[in-house]
Design brief:
The structure is a homodimer. By secondary structure, the first copy, chain A, is of the alpha+beta class. Chain A is built from six helices and five strands, in the order H-H-H-H-E-E-E-E-H-E-H. The first copy, chain A, has a single domain (about 15-160), classed as Arc Repressor Mutant, subunit A, CATH 1.10.10.10. Chain A has helices at about 15-30, 40-50, 55-65, 75-85, 130-140, 155-160, and strands at about 90, 95-100, 110-115, 120-125, 140-155. A three-stranded mixed beta sheet of chain A has the order 4-3-5. The interface of A and B includes residues 94, 122, 140 and 153 of A. Bound molecules: zinc ion (4 copies). Chain B binds a DNA duplex through helix 2 and helix 4.
Chain lengths: ~160, ~160
DNA sequence: TTTGTGATGTTATCTCATAACACTCCGCCT
DNA sequence: AGGCGGAGTGTTATGAGATAACATCACAAA
């Protein structure tokens, strides 16, 4: 993450064990749904989980090979597209980055609180059913997907300079 | 706009007279604020107003010269950045496009209902004070700007195939 | 007129994302 | 076993979106 300030007070990226566990859970669920958790998909999800914050696609591409070899862009973009479709990852449009889903659900709408200072990002339940949904109803629109992202400062960065 | 279907039931782009009027109003307001409505800014705003729907940056670049000559990218991106800063235009992150503000206000948060079928886009008052604001408060985030975009089908496209 | 600031012109480059096509893997039918 | 057929990958190339850097210009204040 490009830091506007010096703080690095994330919850801390999950440890290897936690990543492993989340990965297993995702694989189990996908298999049950008749989908395949292939090597590329698993690797990209592992990178997202390990990062614990939004990651740029080309950073994933650079880190893809365990040996330091980068991947070809389509390899990663295909995996991202799949993970997003399955609700295991989300694209943050306002910063063109990707993040592992932290709400565990299947395909679902999500909203994000993004700290422009330290990069910390929180996924919160999407308020589609609320204000936006009412506005859409009033206008006669049938909503199919949403992009809801709020930028600002996280609690820690509000205090520090 | 890339049409998934054949419908073209926008409110219709505003006529030349309306564009001229909106342009004048914007110029007057900017002058009063000590800002300059330069040729490039005026031209880009005119193109956005005339389109009446989101336009890609490189379409603006292509249409920039009245004589058909394209502009250089920085010319248009600088104008867009200015217009956005002044609340006269908005960037729609989910489709990487730009649209003239239809709520007349100064710098302000906005939300959009976007029809994936015909491209019609409505700007609605941003629900920052609502659900999202509450989520941010609960998490301790101080919001500075938002990206709120809902994709789906407009009333007309819900009926037609 | 001088001088400083904001705006623009111009070139080059960077980042983000996808098209297209050949090939492989794997389950399934015969 | 043999032969589909569809999903997934590898690879090359290119399209689309955005900005860095620096020279120059316009304009109003001093
Ligand atoms: Zn999620
Ligand atoms: Zn922070
Ligand atoms: Zn607006
Ligand atoms: Zn429509």
């Amino acid at each position: 993450m490009a830091d506007a300030c010096q703080h690095h007070h994330h919850d801390g990226p999950p440890g290897a064990a936690e990543v492993e566990r989340a990965l297993d859970a995702a694989g189990t669920r996908l298999t049950a749904e008749g989908e395949r958790m292939t090597a590329a998909r698993s690797r990209v999800l592992a990178l997202l989980l390990a990062a614990g914050e939004p990651v740029k696609a080309y950073d994933l591409i650079a880190r893809f090979g365990e040996d330091g070899q980068p991947a070809k862009p389509p390899t990663v973009y295909r995996a991202l597209e799949f993970l997003e479709r399955k609700g295991l990852a989300h694209r943050i449009a306002s910063i063109s980055a990707y993040v592992a889903c932290t709400s565990g659900g299947r395909d679902h709408a999500a909203a994000f609180l993004i700290c422009d200072c330290c990069g910390t990002t929180r996924e919160v339940s999407s308020p589609v059913a609320g204000d936006l949904g009412r506005a859409a109803d009033a206008a006669g629109y049938a909503i199919e997907r949403t992009t809801i992202e709020a930028h600002g400062r996280c609690p820690a960065c509000r205090i520090a300079v």
